[in-house]
Amino acid sequence: MKRGVLGSTLVLLGGLLISVLPASTPLLRFAPLVALRDERAGRMLGLAVVVIGLGLCASAWLRLCREVAGATGPAARQALTRVCTAAVLWSLPLLVAPPLFSRDGWSYAAQGTMVEIGISPYDYGPWVLGGPIVEAVDPVWMYTRTPYGPLPLGLGALAAAHTRDPWLLVIAHRLIALVGLALLAWAVPRLAAWTRADVPLAGAIVLASPLMLANGVAGLHNDLLMIGLMAAALVVAVERSWLWGAALGGAAAAVKLPGGLVCLAIVLVALPAGAGLRARISRAVSVAGVSLGTVVALGLVVGVGVGWVRGLAVPVTFDTVLSPPTVLGNLLDWLVATLLPGPGWGRFGVDALRHLALLATAVILIGLGVRTPTGDRVAALRALAIAMVALVVLSPVVHPWYLLWPLPFAAALALPRGAWHALMAVAVVGGVAAPLDSTLYDAYVAVSLASLLIAAISAALLVTRRARARMERLEDVRHGGGERGAVGAGASFPGRPGKPAV
To answer: Hey, what's the torsion of the CAs at 123, 125, 131, 137, to 10 degrees?
Structure first.
């Protein structure tokens, strides 16, 4: 526990050197801090401190995974409590941090303020405000409409009604994000119990991994609230009613549009076994109606309507190196320009591959909806995990925090060894590499050195012989005794009292 707390504290301290802060913040009156931030060497030091801190968090997390894996019966409850305690303690130092590795949090603060004073972020960018609230907003987003739904805007407006201090608003938005983490703490153990997976270990992967700490908590992105609502929607649809599940799915879509994909799983679990195509379509229309009604109702309550649809194309105007269609499209454009020089090609390759990827995504989603067995919650969960992975891989824009999208659904499955190791690797590398997405004032040397440091830490955690031995021991514990990693047939944890978990 202590190692993780130390790690997140180092992330907080180093983040003060590499993060963009409002010029008017009192913290910038502290001369030694300003001196370090003004020098490239100081920012490199801050980056190294952050990466080391994330490495400590990763090391503490891997140890936590080994300690809780394979717990059954009452020990499983104790292990899950230990996981939740670690997630809280490791997140606490980051609660007061500025938005790390991204400036989105400052945009959230400005957009919530706009809604509070009656200006729609779907019509104007944060530039209309002026003053301290926009001092740290990324210039890229200063003049653009927001692509986010009405739910985070409404919650941000509630916070802005009590303060206009940008840092306090950032803390408020981080608390909103942590609601998503709390929803995951409630839902993921239930999802894992459906599949007879290792419940405490699934909780550790989702709640306390470096990927979650760096991108969900420190990075302060609406994606954490979105996936929390998605996981809760699926559980509610199974344990209560598909109507309430669809409403929560609409709330997830009202955070970010991909959250609505949980409705695919809700349709599948809301039907009896062996349902035909006509029944699937009918139920899909019903679920979509409830979900869309929730989105529209939230927009009306917040006072912004459905104008956010106009902003959905804003992120696609930028290229990201984690999007396979975009990377391959740029490579294709380069090859065409090299082999067939001449005017008129432009971004033909990028546009073509992006459209093909979107078409492939639609085909995959339709295939999942038509071919996945109905009335089977495990099959529905697996379909949702596949859908979220496909959405990330084929998306025209992929940021590091998009890796959070499939995390709770993949971790709740009883994965084979190879998929298990891949998930662990993504959870470590995706977290430790998060600082490379931050603004470092063109500090290319710092980024290069950080890349080497990240490679060394990742190797120490995942690649060395000792690390492989630790992973194999964890895998043995996870599968030891045949059913050791499962909660057990007929167990009531963690579903409703008296109701079998599987």
So the answer is: 150
Contact between residue 114 and residue 179 where contact means Cβ atoms under 8 Å apart: no
pLDDT in tens, 11-67: 999 999 988 899 888 888 888 888 988 888 888 888 889 989 998 999 999 999 888
User: Do residues 413 and 385 touch, judged by C-beta distance below 8 A?
Assistant: yes
In whole angstroms, give the CA distance from residue 123 to residue 111.
11
List the structure tokens of 67. Answer: 């300690």
* Token pair 């980056």 in the structure block, residue: 47
Backbone angles phi, psi at 355, to 5 degrees: -65, -40
Q: What is the DSSP letter of 100?
A: P
Lowest mean pLDDT segment, chosen from 136-145, 195-204, 290-299: 136-145
| Alpha-carbon gap, residue 20 to 28, rounded angstroms | 11
What distance in Å separates the CA atoms of residue 194 and residue 295, rounded to the nearest whole number?
29
For the chain, what are the domain ranges?
A: 2-479
User: Quick check: bond before 132 cis, omega within 30?
Assistant: no
DSSP symbols for 401-430? GGGGTTHHHHHTS---HHHHHHHHHHHHHH
Number of residues that this document lists for the chain: 502
Q: What is the pLDDT of residues 202-250, one digit of tens each?
A: 999 999 999 999 999 999 899 999 999 999 999 999 999 999 999 999 9
Structure tokens at 340: 């067939």
Surface-to-core class of residue 25, CB atoms within 10 Å of its CB (0-12 exposed, 13-18 middle, 19+ buried): middle
